[in-house]
Amino acid sequence: MGNSSSLEQLDPLHRIASSTPISQTDAELWQQLFSLQLPSSSAEELAAASYSFCAEMVRNNPSSGNFQSLIRRAIDLLHLASKPKATGDPVRQACDCIFFVRLFLKHMIETLPSSELVGHLTVPDGAAGSGPSALCEPLVEALLALLVQCELNAETYWLHMECTAALLVGMSTQLYADLTVPTAQPFLLAVLSSGGTNAELLVQRLLTHVIERPAAPTPPRGILRAIGGAIGTVLLLPYYTVRSVARNVYYIFASADADAGAGPLSLADRSLHVLLLLTQHLPPALFVEGALPSNAFLDALRALGDEQPFDKGTDDHDDPDDPEGGKLRARRVPFKELHDALATALPEPGAALLLYLLLHGNTDFLEYALSRTDPEALLTPLLRLLHESRSLPPNQLYMVLIILLLLSQDAGLMAATQTTMVSSVPWYTERVLGPISVGSLLVLLLVRTVQSNLAKGETHDAYVNTNCLAALANVAPTLRKMHPAAARGMLALVDVFIRKYSRHARRAGRSDAAVAADSAELSATPGGASADSDAEGLQLAADCLRIALEVINLTLSAGPALNEHLVYALLERPGLVEPLRGHEQFSDLLENLDLVLDFFGATLNGPAPGAEGGDPTAAPSTHTVATVLGHIRDVGREWRGERMRAFPDLKFTYEQEAHPEEFFTPYLWNVVYDASGIGWSSERLVLFPTAGDYGGASGGSQVTLPPLTEVDVVDEGACGPVGHGLGTSGASR
């Protein structure tokens, strides 16, 4: 095992990579190539052999044209395999041929400048066709046609896997291109030019795979068997990578025969990655003269409709473009199943990206998602991800926050979250929450995320704070019966912003009285760049603090008694906003808080229930949670809403940036790079720094988040005594 003689079995690969041209009619060679049995060699030997074949192909192909011959053979086989009910040799040989095409193509993309790559994809002189796209376009058309037309079953599963992998490899020229410089993108242009009906049907088919997650069958034999196991993965890994992990991968080979069907990825995963690349926002500068082509695949995703039910008892599904009997109706998929599949898969970054594309671009899907009566189905997995914000890559955290902001824009959905309860939240490890509404859980996790972000000090991400506060402002007018942990968390957040604001004011070198003036004046004071920086930090802290105070005002404006735990938390911390007294920019917001404190706290300093009201020697009252909440409910019946100063509802909406490709293209490719199972080389990578560093959190310091509630916890049932009472402090200013 692992000796050089075993590698002699790969002689057909030597022949096709040699300088001797091969003929399309050389049936014996093609049969040998597609009947290869990979040797039981070590990982390093196999990787070295594949690298050697690829290097030999690059060196000899300009004279032999054998890579072009291989592509032509692949196109012919794909056409045969795309025919209705194709089975047997055409399917198996097409799968093997596409595997070899992407093996050589991947090496060329990784090692050659774009100008040389185009030469290997050009039909040689004297052959039919001309121009650099002469082979890309028919190959791409054949790949897309097969994915649309070829019925998915146990025999064709691996052919679908290979076709999706080939599309990923072909479009990976973006990995090695500067977004700001025109670069040859032959496969990407060929994909975009295919368009038409195929775009709609392909988007539908790929989404169907994402929804149904078809199980992988056991590959039958030869190269096809290797594709489904560890060997196929190793052949596609960069050689230097395999050398570093050869010992580990060798043991994978030992069990590959016993479990050949256990591939690293499913067709659903590959379909998701292809769909994301097909529907991406393309960088205009990549294309010559900025001629950005239209994207029929993105248009198809945006126009997708909900599948209408049909009578399975009828037999009228004979459309040749729909070989699966009505399962693939043009431009329609079952939104319920799609919604649930994405909610389940949200821990995978690709699923969140697709969910964003649908919510932001497809009005029908957005309407469906907002109209569901189970908001917890989507929000709970999103909030669970948010709970892990400290370990998420920054870009994945951004996607979660953008999706939450999109959902928070709908008042109906946010109102529904207030009455939708979850019995427990086992993944929330800071404390036992007990029954909690989805709306309160949303507030709690948004607050926690801001606190975690601010705990990073000067390195905190302002984008995270902005999006969290925007979502909080959107949900605030609908908040009802807020959970005590959420109420206290909101006040804890205000406290954090007050301290941050005060710290910036002190750093600006101004007295408390001077800070009461408009903070914008600070930028005009002497002090150079430091003064400007302090002014910017002070203004940002003031803006965040004001939004947090407005959120509390909006929550109370519907009636303080509707959020008794928020009133309780305010009464418990009457001095919270004292540092802001005399600050004009906050006075209007403090006015309403004072009204609430005065109204509900006025009688709390009186005798405790059962005490003699007129006896000046009576002991000061002590209150339990139950008595205070009962007091809030009783007094709340006399509350008049006109007492509070009215503020317009804060309404934040998500607007995609003018150049979304600057964020989405690198992030999308980073997701595919890490999760596709295709080991691209990072040596010439341009799109993002390195596979391990881009967007990752592993290199950063871990922040220990302090508990949201640093005081004793009020009970969730709003009854019974607790160790910490309000005492006799009342609500004095």
UniProtKB/TrEMBL annotation:
Q: PANTHER family, per this entry? A: DYMECLIN
Q: Which organism is it from?
A: Chrysochromulina tobinii
InterPro entries found in the cross-reference section: Dymeclin (IPR019142)
Keywords recorded for this protein, A-Z: Lipoprotein, Myristate
Output the superkingdom of the source species. Eukaryota
GO biological process terms on file: Golgi organization
Return the similarity comment: Belongs to the dymeclin family.
What name does this protein carry? Dymeclin
Q: Does the keyword Mitochondrion apply?
A: no
